[in-house]
Amino acid sequence: MAPLPAFRFPTEETKFPFANTGLDFFGPYYIEDKESKIEKHYGLIFTCLVTRAVHLETCPDLNTDTYLNAYRRFTCRRCQPILLYSDNEKTFVGASEELKKLVKALDKDKIYKALAAVKTTWKFNPPYGPHFGGVWVRLIQSAKRTLLIILGSKRLSFDIFETIMVEVEAILNSRPLTNVADQPENEEPLTPNHFLIQRPYSSLPPGNFGDQQLASFKNWKHVQQLMNHVWRRLIKEYLPTLLKRRKWTDNNQPPVKVGESGPSEVETSPVRDGEVRVAKVKTAYGSFVRPVAGLARVFSP
After folding, report:
1. Which helix (H) or strand (E) holds 22?
2. How many domains, the chain?
3. 36 lies in which domain range?
4. pLDDT in tens, 267-288
């Protein structure tokens, strides 16, 4: 098994949640409108590839315009990502082209040129390679399982469904990333909420909690110190657990070379660890990019 890719690690430029983000749709779910008509709605997940934080949106369809509205809601509440990863679904490819046009338009305007300097790079997984998106597919499974427990076979109104989606988001962001201590005096485990709201839980039970103290410069420095401590714990405690893949065996096969899968293989794309995971193949219908997991070596007798 290869080492973790670079986008799974925080850097000085990406040391904030959702700097590197993976996304995908899931569903559909059926809800009732005011006239008791059944409508389809889909979930859209954004997950931080470093902190594993989750942001969920509800979408009435899978159109590009619908996605762009959801993406705008996401960036307004979280941040503009530096890197976006997804599969090459038509919705995402169309949205990528629309965003490129927007950036070009902003570049031409002197007023908005500074905003256009903050660009998002969108990278797509190769076709027929769903395992490339395993980072967010795993969290989609967790979201769907939680929704199944809450919803069951019920059909609710959109307002209730949207609220439940936010509740699921809060549950996923409260899950522990590191080991849970067996002693109460030990340090609490890291959760995605530590990076989002600097505490393990997203909401408190209703009640009178008193007035909050106004933030001072000294408090600000204390918050920054706490956040630096959280990031250090992420690197020391959480990331090493991702490197333990006991169910995987060492790959003793050499990287695939051009022509090993037949004359149709015309180009390979090695990555930084020397492994080849994507190849370009030529067929009677044109050239296509495909994962090497779906190719077979051709051995000459």
Report:
1. strand 20-32
2. 2
3. 6-173
4. 666 666 667 777 777 777 777 7
Joined together, the tokens standing for residue 211 give 């007035």
pLDDT band at 207 (very low <50, low <70, confident <90, very high): very low
Distance between CA 126 and CA 145 in Å, rounded? 27
Tokens of 181: 């201590």
Look up residue 258 and give its two tokens: 């051009």
DSSP 128: T
- Examine the domain organization and report whether 281 and 135 are in the same domain: no
Question: What is the per-residue pLDDT for 90?
Answer: 92
- Which of 9-30 are b and which e, b meaning 16 or more Cβ less than 10 Å from the residue's Cβ? ebeeebebbbbbbbbbbbbebe
Of the residues 173, 195, 219, the one at which a domain ends: 173
Q: Do the domain assignments include residue 239?
A: no
CA distance 279 to 110: 42
Residue 31 is inside which H or E element, if any?
Answer: strand 20-32
pTM of the predicted model as reported, rounded to 2 decimal places: 0.71
Choosing from 147, 173, 199, the residue where a domain stops is 173
- Does residue 245 have a pLDDT over 70? no
What secondary structure does DSSP assign to 187-255, as a single string? PPPP-THHHHTSSS-S---SS---PPPPP-HHHHHHHHHHHHHHHHHIIIIIHHHHT--TTPPP--SPP
| CATH value at residue 119 | 3.30.420.10
User: For residue 209, what pLDDT band results from cuts at 50, 70 and 90?
Assistant: very low
SS3 content of the chain, % helix, strand, coil (to 5): 35, 20, 45
